[in-house]
Amino acid sequence: MAKIVNTTDFVGFHYLAQSCIADPTLQYYIDRYEPHYLVSLLGEDYQAFYDSLDTNNPPIDPLILDWYDPFVGTNQCGCYSCYFLSKGVKDMLTGLIFYHYTHDNQGQMALTGMVFNNNENSVVMTPEQAEAYILERYNEGARTYNAIIRRRAGDCCVSSKCNLEIESTVI
Q1: What residue spans define the domains of the chain?
Q2: Residues 95, 141 contacting (CB under 8 angstroms)
Q3: Across the chain, where does the E strand assignment appear?
Q4: What is the pTM of this model?
């Protein structure tokens, strides 16, 4: 069971229709991807962090809040000068989960194969348009992920192998 992201967090920039929020599939995606990204982000520190979480309250440990909450950081190791922005762990996870949920639900499996939804009252985006829309949310989550990796490394450069790839192509 996820402890950070809830179905009701998909508002504003990560808006999902109420029918999606009521869909148990969304909770499945939250339960699947919240630990996935946190393990990738925290490595061996994941279990202690996750065990310390209270589902009703944010963390209180100042060492965790240093990277959990939103922040602007600057490169401290001298390899090059830059700023990096984190919108916080909850926003990062919401964006990454939004990406997986909407990407996987653009079409649905039917007896006749993969089909795209059609509606008489609206025009459905092309798959390319939809992918560009959801990649924007993924990339923002990935930039926050990469900023948190840097913060946890002492605001220093880290191997690009540690970073999430910023996507620019349509799948």
Answers
A1: 7-162
A2: yes
A3: 71-74, 83-86, 107-110, 113-116
A4: 0.85
